[in-house]
């Protein structure tokens, strides 16, 4: 019996085990870090509108005989901050719902052409207000097994962004196509574009290219995270192509039939 050999073998096993253990610890730590970061981000984002509301309310309170016009102005600002808080909470709820597993999908055979048209119709007032023209081009009728609510959220967020980050008199082009396996939705805009180094981060929760600008146009930084989650739950993929000052194109690819 070669005890030396046995001993060496056990030694290798132990070091392999401890290596695997360390790897797992590392992964757990990364998970925990990103969870902590998420909670910190959420708290911060939720607190920002509250802080503004408090400042607005307090500054009215300390003014004696403030004229009615001033009250109106402050109330309008307060209302805006409340709306913002509401938007963040709604986006967070959408995200949390989708953070669960794909088993939460409510998949049904859906007419995607109708779905896209419905979404664009709903967004038309926002586009008109921004003086952006939205055009829909469908290359074929598409029926697919999707969770209508979640896919709607994804498309809505992409088109809303294409309108929001556009220029006066700009355009948004939405195209729908399919092959035997997938359907494809492309949302192209003539907007401000996304810098190369930011493109890999835009799908992260709370990430915004230009914080102050995005805040001005009412972003929560959650729209693309929601869109990507919805698409990935359907085993699809979303990609971005962009050139600063020229425009941005998002492409979405989703399987026609949903396989568990
Ligand atoms: P937000 O609520 O800020 O719009 P999103 O998650 O939807 O958050 O998008 C993240 C960031 O990516 C935005 O703040 C914006 O800077 C950038 N972005 C998204 N879509 C576009 C687009 N079509 N054109 C230019 N920038 C975009």
UniProtKB/TrEMBL annotation:
Its main location: membrane. The keyword Membrane applies. Residues 41-258 form the Histidine kinase domain. Residues 1-33 form the HAMP domain. Keywords: Kinase, Membrane, Phosphoprotein, Transferase, Transmembrane, Transmembrane helix, Two-component regulatory system. It comes from the Bacteria. It catalyses: ATP + protein L-histidine = ADP + protein N-phospho-L-histidine. This is histidine kinase. The chain holds residues 248 to 507 of 507 of the full protein.
């Amino acid at each position: 019996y070669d005890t030396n050999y046995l001993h060496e073998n056990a030694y290798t096993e132990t070091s392999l085990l401890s290596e695997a253990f360390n790897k797992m610890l590392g992964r757990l730590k990364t998970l925990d870090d990103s969870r902590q970061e998420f909670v910190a981000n959420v708290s911060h984002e939720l607190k920002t509108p509250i802080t503004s509301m408090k400042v607005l309310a307090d500054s009215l309170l300390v003014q004696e005989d403030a004229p009615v016009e001033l009250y109106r102005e402050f109330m309008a600002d307060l209302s805006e901050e409340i709306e913002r808080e509401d938007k963040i909470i709604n986006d967070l709820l959408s995200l949390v719902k989708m953070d669960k597993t794909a088993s939460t999908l409510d998949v049904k055979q859906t007419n995607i052409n109708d779905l896209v048209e419905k979404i664009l119709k709903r967004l038309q007032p926002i586009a008109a207000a921004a003086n952006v023209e939205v055009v829909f081009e469908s290359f074929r009728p598409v029926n697919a097994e999707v969770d209508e609510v979640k896919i709607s959220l994804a498309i809505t967020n992409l088109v809303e962004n294409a309108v929001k980050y556009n220029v006066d008199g700009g355009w948004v082009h939405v195209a729908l196509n399919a092959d035997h396996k997938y359907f494809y939705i492309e949302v192209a805009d003539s907007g401000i574009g996304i810098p190369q180094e930011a493109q890999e981060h835009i799908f992260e929760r709370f990430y915004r290219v230009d914080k102050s600008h995005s805040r001005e146009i009412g972003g929560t930084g959650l729209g693309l995270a929601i869109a990507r989650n919805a698409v990935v739950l359907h085993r699809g993929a979303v990609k971005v192509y962009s050139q600063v000052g020229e425009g941005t194109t998002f492409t979405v690819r989703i399987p026609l039939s949903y396989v568990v």
